[in-house]
Amino acid sequence: MRTRVALAGVLALTLIAPARALAAPEGQLTWAAHFAFAPTLFEPAETSGLITPFMILYALHDAVVKPMPGKGMAPSLAESWSTSPDGLVVDFVLRKGVKFHIGDPVTAEDVKFSFERYRGIFARLLKERVAAIEIPDPGRVRFRLKQPWPDFLTYYATPATGAGWVVPKKYVEKVGEEGFKKAPVGAGPYRFVSFTPGVELVLEAFEGYWRKTPNVKRLVFKAIPDPSTRLAMLKRGEADISYGFEGDLADEIRRTPGLTLRPTPFVSTHWLVFADQWDPKSPWHDRRVRLAANHAVNRQAINQAATLGFSRITGSIIPASFEFYWPPPPYPYDRDKARQLLADAGYPGGFDAGDLWCDAATTPYSELLINDLQAAGIRTRLRPLERAGFLKAYQEKKLKNIIYGLSGIFGNAATRIEAFVASSGIYAYGGYPDIDGLFREQAEERDPRKREAILHRIQQLMHEKAMYLPIWQFVVLQGYGPRVAESGLGLIADYPWSAPYEDLKLKGK
Question: Can you tell me the distance from the alpha carbon of 273 to that of 259, in angstroms, rounded to the nearest whole number?
């Protein structure tokens, strides 16, 4: 009798499960985002070294391997992968039956094409290290490396880059690069519906998504740069989830019935770049001046004012959770010491430090930094730029004086050093021979302990030279309203936005 009951229960679950899986998506979720969207965010090939594009990539597209709840590298378009004993070959076995939004199957050719057209951050490094991409059969992709490279999966299978996110080869070749940005097609849980520049992006559930049918029918992302407006929309129910609050506004969310404040920690470190430190004529060429700036900033007060104390004060541009991280001693806040260092460097009355350039979204934090620097005698003017323009100017080395730098992409200590510290880095304005030499050495070291020792030494040199002014490991303060049953915030470790989108839920749905 017990066996019959158990079998009946299993049969009932078997009959019920497909009904749940096939339930049609319902309702709409609306986000109020803290920046203006640009078509480059729809394009995996152009990821820029920030985590921002993955806000859209997780909806529109899918990756060979990507972080998911509970896993830093989860099988996605690939159901499995393996690395040869000599470290020179990485094989991916693709999942069967996966389709793009237009109905075409995802093939090994699409994976190969997507890697080869990738032109974002670390594109040069990836192309230099990969000798060939082969397709042994339609369901497999093989990467041959020129030499063993321990970080291949770190770059390819995490949001360190967008090289592993797959687009349809035939469609891109048919509509062209600009056509693809205007009407992107992917293999993700949501398909593109419309985009109004500076206003909103609309996506709709793709019921053929391989992992599961999304719960919510429509996603709407609205560009609302003003935080007070984002809060008002959240209170009025015009937005269900709002990103990027500071200080008093975040505290107001916490105190408002029906609203929920959700701090989301992730691998985003923020720092100031002394872009002219390699120019002998610049005050920043003097290490004492760079040290003075570091001692001039009251990081804890800024943390409390801007993120209610949730962010983590750090002395590094590398996140504490990254492999090979070395914890540098923090620079203590000491305004008198800052003034003395400036006097020792020949600036007893301080000096005019020119412009401080920042992404417009970091303006509130930049203003607090400027106040502290000015109080110590380092006078600077704020120059905010819209995000896309800021990143373009930053990469093209057009910004001078001081830059508010940040990165929230995944990786390890080596990947962060590659982009921002080594002289060949996409965001590096200069470099130091001892650091460059050590960086080349670690890239070829297969022994994890030896490699860790080299990377620790690089970070020690960065600290000794006071190359940067580290601020914090940032925590984004998000808010969501009463209609939301699952916001997706925090489901993926060290990731700040809602995801996976197919897991989001509305109450009563």
Answer: 37
- Considering only the top CATH level, what class is 20-53+188-259+481-509? alpha beta
- From 401, 437, 403, select the one nearest 422 (Cα to Cα): 437
Question: 358 near 382, Cβ under 8 Å?
Answer: yes
What's the burial of 463, exposed, middle or buried (CB within 10 Å: 0-12/13-18/19+)? buried
Residues of each domain in the chain carrying CATH 3.10.105.10 = 266-475
* 234 contacts: CB under 8 Å, gap ≥ 6: 32, 240, 242, 253, 259, 479, 480, 481
Residue with tokens 């120059």: 383
111 and 166 in contact (C-beta within 8 Å)? yes
Enumerate the β-bridge partners of residue 145.
130
CA distance 200 to 197: 7
Residue with tokens 């000015």: 374
Contact yes or no for 52/183 (Cβ under 8 A): no
CA 245/CA 243 separation, integer angstroms: 6
Summarize pLDDT for 226-269 with one digit per residue, the tens: 999 999 999 999 999 999 999 999 999 999 999 999 999 999 99
What is the CATH topology of the domain spanning 266-475? Dipeptide-binding Protein; domain 3 (3.10.105)
Q: Are strands 505-506 and 65-68 parallel, antiparallel or unpaired?
A: unpaired
Please provide the DSSP assignment of 259-327 as one string.
-EEEEEEEEEEEEEEETTTT-TTSGGGSHHHHHHHHHH--HHHHHHHHHTT-SEE-S-SS-TTSTT---
**pLDDT tens by residue, 21-49:** 457 899 999 999 998 888 989 999 999 87
Judge residue 86's burial from the number of C-beta atoms within 10 Å of its C-beta, 0-12 exposed, 13-18 middle, 19 or more buried: exposed
pTM of the model: 0.85
* φ, ψ (nearest 5 deg) of residue 273: -100, 125
- Token pair, residue 283, equals 């005050």
- Intervals of CATH 3.40.190.10 along the chain: 20-53+188-259+481-509
**CATH 3.90.76.10 is right for the domain spanning 62-171:** yes
